[in-house]
Specification:
The chain has about 270 residues and is an alpha/beta fold. The chain has 2 domains: about 1-30; about 45-265, Alpha/Beta hydrolase fold, catalytic domain (Rossmann fold), CATH 3.40.50.1820. The chain has helices at about 1-30, 90, 95-100, 120-135, 150-165, 180, 190-195, 200-205, 225-230, 255-265, and strands at about 35, 50-55, 60-65, 75-80, 85, 105-110, 145-150, 170, 210-215, 240-245. The chain has an 8-stranded mixed sheet with strand order 2-3-6-4-7-8-9-10, sandwiched between helices. Helix 4 packs across helix 5. The protein is globular, with a radius of gyration of 20 Å. The mean pLDDT is about 95.
Length: about 270
């Protein structure tokens, strides 16, 4: 009996260690789904744009697509930090949400996404966001810059808004933190040690002095509404958590509530 019990304990420990090792070494492949684009290729996008690049070092280059508006109509800038899939081409259609209100839109691709190069890490995501912000400040005042984060990009946007001034922070389908997303499934592991990306949005929001607006759908199957709702208690008076009834992870733009709210925010 003792031998059998010991054998089962040994099997359980081996399985535990195996799953933990797989989580540690392969989590980036589970979380990130980039698509690279040759640096010499040309984007085929509907909106008028120009490209810019920031060379951090010999191995790391941040590629930014800057969707433009006529000088006579320009009111400000939206720094748009996108989700975990593909590259800028997947998110380019969203630029029209802001361009129709007279806002230029800059979309940086993360390292390893699109034409951007480098080995992605949480620290490098923050570095990229800060470098793009510095570029923006050469042209715009903080009162003209809106920081926007979608899904993965919501944590990056929140961190940037916590350390730099802006007109407003807008988060679409955000998470409380990356570890909070995984914890219900892998509660038995020391996730703070295992996770490469922690992206603690909950730690950044209390440090954001600009107005904050959050959009989240009740039917989001990627980042649960319940997880995002935890952020509401961290908001200041005047901030807003906007619930989109029936909204999922990638369709919030189809809801008049979201379209009208964004139009209203940008016109303020």
């Amino acid at each position: 009996m003792k031998k059998k019990t010991f054998r089962w304990i040994k099997i359980i420990i081996i399985i535990y260690c195996l799953i933990g090792s797989l989580l540690y070494y392969f989590q980036d492949r589970l979380i990130l789904h980039p698509e690279k684009i040759p640096a010499e290729s040309s984007y085929q996008l509907r909106q008028p744009f120009v490209e810019a690049n920031i060379a951090l070092d010999s191995a790391t280059r941040f590629n930014i697509v800057q969707f433009t508006v006529p000088d006579s109509a320009r009111k400000g800038l939206v720094l748009y930090f996108h989700g975990n899939r593909a590259n800028i081409t997947r998110y380019a259609p969203f630029a029209e949400w802001f361009r129709r209100n007279g806002y230029e839109v800059w979309m940086p691709d993360y390292p390893g996404f699109g034409k951007s190069t480098g080995d992605i890490s949480e620290r490098l995501l923050y570095t990229e966001a800060l470098e793009v912000y510095k570029m923006a400040r050469a042209k715009y005042a903080p009162s003209q810059i809106t920081i926007y984060g979608k899904s993965l990009g919501s944590g990056v946007a929140a961190q940037l808004a916590a350390v730099r001034d802006c007109k407003r922070l807008v988060l679409e389908t955000p998470y409380y933190s990356f570890t909070s997303l995984v914890r219900p499934y892998l509660w038995m592991y020391p996730l703070d040690m295992l996770m490469h990306f922690k992206l603690p949005t909950n730690e950044y929001l209390p440090r954001v002095t600009a107005p904050i607006t959050i959009f989240h759908g009740t039917d989001d199957g990627v980042i649960s509404y319940r997880n995002a709702k935890r952020l509401q208690k961290l908001l200041k008076p005047g901030d807003a958590f906007i619930t989109v009834e029936g909204g999922s992870h990638n369709d919030l733009g189809n809801f008049p509530l979201v379209q009208q709210s964004i139009d209203s925010l940008l016109r303020q």
